[in-house]
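We emphasize that the prediction below concerns an isolated chain of 186 residues; any contacts that depend on oligomerization or on bound cofactors are therefore not represented. The input was used exactly as deposited, without trimming of termini.
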Amino acid sequence: MKTAAIIVLLILCIALVIYLVIMKIQLRQIEAELHRNLDPAYNRQVTVTLLDRSLSSLSAEINRSLDMQRRLKRDAERAERSLRQSVSDIAHDLRTPMTVIKGNLQLLAQEEHLSERGAEYLAISREKADALKEMADTFFEMSVLESDDAAAQLTQVNLTKVLMQFLADSEAAIRLHHLKPEILFP
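Result of the prediction step, given as a token string:
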């Protein structure tokens, strides 16, 4: 009877040792899979082959965590792209009114009935408008350079409308230089 008990205990010990070795192998595989998941191009779930409730639960939690990290990264990249586009749009929207303001200030500078104090205010306004226009231009150029959009999106443009807007915005500069553009639009 003692021998049978010893044999049973020995078999149980061997089974436990085998189970622990398999568990250790699984843990190393999970560790290796987590390490490979550090690479952004790698996108796989952690799997276990051992039928152990605790190890399966751990694997499921790790997978939920990996999914959440991927989702957060995707959301952050989307938000960054949106922010860059907004910065670019704002910079572009600032440039057009600044061009009009500068042109109007140039026209105002040609007025003959401008008081000395008015001329001082005009000079300050022109200086500040020039500085602001330069900042807007720099801001726009920076936003274009920092934009990492891989491919440009092609869209149809109403060239007549764009040219009419350009002429309207540049009216002050056209008058200032006594230009008379010949415009023939279809």
